[in-house]
Structures are given as structure tokens and as C-alpha cells.
Amino acid sequence: MKKAIFFCAALVLVACNQAPDLSLYKANQALAEKFLNTYVSPTDYDGFTTMIADDIEHQSPMYGQGIVGKEAVLGQANFYMNNFSDVTFNNAVWLPGVDNETLVPDGSVRVYGTWKGVSNATGKSFSVDSYHYFLFNEDGKLVQSGDFFDATGMIMAVAPDPVGEDTEE
Hints:
Nuclear Transport Factor 2, Chain: A
């Protein structure tokens, strides 16, 4: 009887200590990296558009936008890709996403990093820390995503200097 109890306890411990299957996460991380690289100079708007599902739900970084659909996602990408150059994504920390209830990896992807680039209009550079999340469907299309960074601060940092003001100190 003691051996049976010990065996059951050992079995439970082994089962609880099994590493989660991260194969879906790793496949989706590769997709997320490819997706973010469409923003890196030179940009790839056509590649970007092929990775977006028609029914995408995206948390916009723009103040007051909230969750937006495909047209807004395409518009935001077009804005960033056409107005900035020398864009890089640095210091990436990739992490598996988890189911909100079970906390078990669900194949989604999260990443922290720093975007850097230059405004085409003003020549001013920006550097902004960010957090992004991605969920892909079986076809490799992005169905849920979110961007968290100070988009307003980034735009203000590269804005033209006010006319008539001395900006030298």
C-alpha cells in the first residue's frame, strides 16, 4: 500500500513538473518577428498586409482609439512606414503569452523592446520603449494584437520646432 501511495505521489509530481509545450509559441514567435520586421527599414507594407486577418482586433497605441479593426490597422501601419526611416527594434525580450484563466501558454506571443528611427519630415530621431502582443490563427494571420507605447510622445518628439521660437539654449 505504501508503494502504491508513493507511486501515485511521484506520478503527480512528475505530471505537475512537465514543461509546457511551447512549439506553437515558437512558431508564432517567428511569425511575430516577421511581422515586426515589416516596420524595420526598409519597410514591407505589402508583407504587412498579407499577415493581417480580415477580422483582426487590435489595441491601438493612439490616444482614445481603443480596439480597432483592419482598416485602422492598415492606416496606422501606412502612417508609420511612410513617415519614418532608419527604423529598428532593439533589445527584444520575447515571452510566451498565457491563457488568462489557466495561465498555461496558449501560443500567443509577447515582446518588450525599443523602437528607434528618424522622422522623414523633420530629421529628428525617436526612441520609444514598447510592449506588443500577438495571437495568430491557424493560417498564420494575425487575429489579435496590441501595441503599448507612448505614441503621442513619440510624435511630439519628432514634431517640427515651433515657428518663431528660439530653440537654442
